[in-house]
Structure formats: C-alpha cells, structure tokens
C-alpha cells in the first residue's frame, strides 16, 4: 500500500432506508401466482439461509443423514409451493415463516414415519452437508431450544452474508488490503493497538486510517440494513428485525 495516506474506497453507497422490490416482498406479492421473479427470489433466500434450518432439524435430535434428507425434501416441497399457501402478508419475517413452515412439514410429513431412504430425496439445490455438520458440531446448542438456536444461526448467517458482500466490494475496488486491516475493528477497537501504530505499519496517517474506518463502518451498516430488508416485508419492520438479530448475536457472544 502506498504511503500517500489516501485510504479511500471508491464505492458508491447504497441509499439508506430505500428498499425497492426486496426479495421477500417480491415473493409475498406473487404468493399465489406462477411468477419467475418470485421463484428466483425465493430460491435465492433459501440458498442463503438453508443452514439455520439444517441446524434446527439437528437440534431436534435427528441424525446428520436424516437432517440432510429432511432439509432437502423440505426445500423441494417449499420451492414447488407445496406449503406456500401458508404465507401470511401480515407476518412479514421470512425467518419466522420459514421455521414455522418447517415445523408444519416435520409434523405432517415426517412424524408419521414417512422417511426417505438415504439419498432418496429430491434435490432442489446442492447443500454442503459435510460443511454444515462440521459447523453444527462446532456450534453446540447445549440446553438451548431449537427455536433459539435457529435464530442465532440465522443471525450469524446474515452477518456472514454482509461481510462477504462487503469484502467483495473492497476487492472490486482494489482495496482488499484495506478491508483486511480494518475488518477486525468493525465491532470495536482493539485497545492494545493504536490507530497510529496500524497506520505506520501500512503507510497511512492516523487521520486517513480513522476516515477509512468510518467509511467501512458506514458501508457495513448500510449493507446490514439492506440484507435484513431482503428478509422482511413491509420495509417498516426492518429496524425491529435488525434490533432483534443484533440482540441475539450479543447474547451468543456473552
């Protein structure tokens, strides 16, 4: 990195508070129609947030193999709109709708013993079962309820999505090194290391480093709100959902 002190990241900031045609609102608007746009939006959401459902099924006591089959079969039904009539526009959180629909599926399909043979499920999209199981074992729920564990996994997945998108933005702007230096400070400053020390190490003034940190945090907040907005409808519920998910994460870390 050059020593010019120019640590700016040339990325246009998304407008805060404006969420036109978010994924879940698109799905809800077309709940009873054959809409390619809604189908694509729904599959995108499912691909992103399938792991919390896998963790929920595992936390209910199912084996890794059964949890994989159950999750895959659930999505096969879900994406074919077998359960989509349950969508309620007055309950606009995709997180809540998804887990309630899964519970309905487990009760009405699998509690009666209609189990798939291993590998016999319908594949709607690829699930990395090995990675999911490794992650699940590393995030042992202990005495936590499956519902609470699901919410924590959902919040963690959402934050991971935000960081992945933010990292990609910086990479596309040729600022990967800036991101890697500053990312660890998003949730608070390491008091053992000063901005002056970090700036000296990377050829940046303390002022430039602080400005870069301010821009990163602002962009993180914008992307976080936008990601939450993809999973709720109407948009005026974004702030409530954001507060709840951040509370869930803080309790996880405490």
Please give the count of helices: 10
Structural class: mainly alpha
Proportion of residues in extended strands = under 5%
Query: What would you report as the Rg, rounded to the nearest angstrom?
Result: 21 Å
Indicate the mean pLDDT: 80
DSSP E strands, number: 0
Level of helix content? 55-70%
- Largest pleated sheet: none
- Low-pLDDT runs of 5+ residues are 1-20
Note the gap between the termini.
36 Å
Q: Give the overall form.
A: globular
| Order of H and E elements | HHHHHHHHHH
Summed up, the domain count is 1
What does this structure look like?
- The chain has 254 residues and is an all-alpha fold.
- It has one domain.
- The protein has helices at residues 23-29, 36-59, 64-79, 94-110, 129-138, 146-172, 176-182, 195-202, 206-229, 238-253.
- Helix 2 (36-59) crosses helix 6, helix 6 packs across helix 10 and helix 8 crosses helix 9 (206-229).
- The chain is globular, with a radius of gyration of 21 Å.
- The model is unreliable at 1-20 (pLDDT under 50).
Q: What is the strand and helix layout of this fold?
A:
Elements: H1 23-29, H2 36-59, H3 64-79, H4 94-110, H5 129-138, H6 146-172, H7 176-182, H8 195-202, H9 206-229, H10 238-253
Helix pairs in contact: 1-2, 2-3, 2-6, 6-7, 6-9, 6-10, 8-9, 9-10
List keywords for this structure.
single chain, 254 residues, mainly alpha, 10 helices, 61% helix, disordered N terminus
């Amino acid at each position: 990195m050059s020593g010019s002190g120019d640590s700016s990241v040339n990325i246009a900031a998304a407008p805060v508070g404006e969420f036109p045609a978010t994924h879940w609102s698109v799905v809800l608007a077309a709940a009873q129609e054959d809409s390619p746009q809604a189908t694509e939006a729904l599959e995108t959401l499912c691909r992103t947030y399938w792991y919390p459902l896998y963790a929920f099924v595992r936390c209910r006591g199912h084996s890794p193999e059964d949890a994989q089959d159950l999750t895959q079969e659930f999505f096969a039904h879900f994406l074919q709109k077998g359960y989509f009539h349950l969508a309620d526009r007055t309950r606009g959180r995709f997180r809540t709708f998804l887990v309630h629909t899964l519970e309905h599926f487990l009760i009405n399909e699998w509690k009666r013993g209609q189990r798939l043979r291993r590998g016999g499920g319908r594949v709607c999209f690829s699930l990395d079962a090995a990675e999911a199981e490794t992650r699940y074992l590393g995030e042992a729920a202990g005495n936590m309820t499956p519902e609470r564990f699901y919410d924590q996994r959902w919040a963690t997945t959402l934050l991971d999505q935000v960081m992945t998108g933010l990292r990609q933005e910086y990479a596309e702007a040729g600022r990967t090194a800036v991101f890697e230096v500053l990312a660890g400070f998003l949730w608070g400053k390491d008091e053992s290391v000063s901005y002056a020390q970090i700036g000296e190490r990377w050829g940046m003034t303390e002022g430039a480093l602080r400005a870069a940190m301010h821009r990163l945090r602002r962009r993180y907040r914008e992307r976080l709100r936008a990601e939450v907005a993809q999973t709720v409808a109407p948009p005026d519920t974004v702030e409530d959902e954001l507060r709840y998910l951040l509370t869930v994460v803080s309790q996880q870390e405490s």
